[in-house]
Amino acid sequence: MSTPLVRLSGPTPTGASTRHDGIPASRNATARYTWHHERVSIRCLLVDDSDAFLKAASVLLEREGMTVLGTASNSAEALRLAGALRPDVILVDIGLREESGFDLARLLAQDGQAGGAEVILISARAEADYAELIAESPAAGFLVKSDLSAQAIDRILSHTP
């Protein structure tokens, strides 16, 4: 017997988890968190030098209700897309091959290059590895890549712990 496709979003009256994208959902699973994408769709730009990460993060964030406007793999491309697309948030990898995500965050913040978008720095390494540099940067916050989610982004943007 095949698993039915579910088109609802959020918890059902029985508390079961459902998915809005037509992917089968377990009737016994509980929701991991309560991200309310129907309230607002955050528009983001992803900046990372790993194509695999850009694809995986785009799929994850889109499934969670965010709109991924575009992706960039270097600073020049990120600056061009930020100006053209006007995202709400720009997720910037700290290590962009020869470039620095900290430098890109500063460039985006200066003279309104980001069009008012908030910058969130991301890395596979722990926040403690960059604590001083993050504190000195104009970024709204930091996320370890393994913790990336729409809820975590929303928490940083709304300045809640």
Task: Provide a descriptive summary of the structure in words.
The chain is built from five helices and seven strands. Residues 1-37 have low confidence and may be disordered. The protein has helices at 51-63, 75-85, 101-109, 131-136, 150-157; strands spanning 43-47, 67-72, 89-93, 95-96, 99-100, 118-123, 141-144. The protein has 161 residues and is α/β, with parallel strands linked by helices. It has two domains: 1-32, no CATH class; 43-157, Rossmann fold (3-Layer(aba) Sandwich). Helix 2 (75-85) packs parallel to helix 3 (101-109).
CATH fold-level label of the largest domain: Rossmann fold
Oligomer status: single chain
Specify the helix fraction band: 25-40%
The N- and C-terminal alpha carbons lie at a distance of 44 Å
Choose one word for the global shape. globular
Strand arrangement within the widest β-sheet reads 2-1-3-6-7
The major β-sheet equals:
5 strands, parallel
What is the count of DSSP helices, taking H or I runs of 4+ residues?
5
Q: Quote the average pLDDT.
A: 81
CATH top level assignment of the largest domain: Alpha Beta
Q: Tell me the structural class.
A: alpha/beta
Q: What is the CA-atom radius of gyration, in angstroms? A: 17 Å
Considering the chains and any ligands shown, give keywords for the structure.
two-stranded antiparallel sheet, 7 strands, Rossmann fold, 161 residues, alpha/beta, 2 domains
Short description:
By secondary structure, the chain is α/β, with parallel strands linked by helices. Helices cover 29% and strands 19% of the residues.
